[in-house]
Design a protein that fits this description.
By secondary structure, the chain is of the alpha/beta class. The protein has ten helices and six strands; from the N terminus they run βαβαβαβαβαβααααα. The chain has two domains: about 120 residues, Rossmann fold (3-Layer(aba) Sandwich), CATH 3.40.50; about 70 residues, Arc Repressor Mutant, subunit A, CATH 1.10.10.10. A six-stranded parallel beta sheet has the order 2-1-3-4-5-6, sandwiched between helices. Strand 5, helix 5 and strand 6 form a beta-alpha-beta unit.
Length: about 230
């Protein structure tokens, strides 16, 4: 039996829980993911409450979480999932409020169920590795949401960032990877990684997705700035 949380602790196997109220959808996900030698499914759930019990029992690295389910929905379940498990929200609904609520609830990634199988596999790997993922279409919708907000606010801790950390936060919000940021700032990727980690810690953020939210919410980055892409 595969030990739960293996990838999060540096093991070779990524453990995954499947949460969706449709059995056929869960079966489809299982067939796709179990084809990968380093993926293992720890269990399935059809609603949020059952999902939380499953997660507490098996401690998977990644949860594929549906949004609309009977009883406790996927947004509330995501909000209650603790570290080190990371949540990848999958839904058929490409709606602004769903994207926004999922990210605010702590989701590490958001992917539409219409995404190709290889994109789903990549998304699981990205999230399990501790990174965050938003597809380009989702990122554009998220930016449009911030553009419609009448007033920005400065989150606690923004003033504690160094000038370089603020610069890195702006670039993260524009969708650049650590390697791309390193190339632009003419530094090593490891240096950028250290800046990102420090920035997240000072702002009390979980990951890069929440950093993107903070950058726009605070007005540090303005919708319409050049170079916007997908958070990675």
């Amino acid at each position: 039996m595969v030990a739960a949380g293996a990838a999060a602790r540096g093991g070779d196997v990524i453990t995954i829980a499947l949460v969706d109220d449709q059995e056929l959808v869960r079966t489809g996900f299982r067939l796709i993911l179990e084809a990968e030698a380093d993926f293992a499914i720890t269990g399935e759930a059809a609603d949020g409450e059952t999902a939380l019990a499953l997660i507490a029992r098996t401690r998977p690295d990644v949860v594929l979480m549906d949004v609309r389910m009977p009883g406790m929905d996927g947004i509330e379940a995501t909000r209650r999932v603790g570290e080190p498990t990371r949540v990848l929200v999958l839904t058929t609904f490409d709606l602004d409020e769903v994207v926004w609520e999922a990210i605010r609830a702590g989701a590490a990634g958001f992917l539409l169920k219409t995404a190709p199988a290889d994109e789903l596999v990549r998304a699981v790997r990205v999230v399990a590795a501790g990174d965050s993922l938003l597809s380009p279409s989702i990122t554009r919708r998220l930016i449009e949401t911030f553009a419609a907000q009448p007033q920005a606010r400065e989150p606690s801790g923004l003033g504690e960032l160094t000038a370089r950390e603020l610069e890195v936060l702006r670039l993260v919000a524009r969708g650049l990877s650590n390697a791309e940021i390193a190339a632009q700032l003419v530094v090593e990727p490891s240096t950028v990684k250290s800046h990102v980690a420090s920035m997240l810690a000072k702002l009390g953020l979980r990951d890069r997705v929440q950093a993107v939210v903070t950058a726009y919410e605070s007005g540090l980055v303005i919708p319409g700035d050049a170079g916007l892409g997908a958070a990675s």
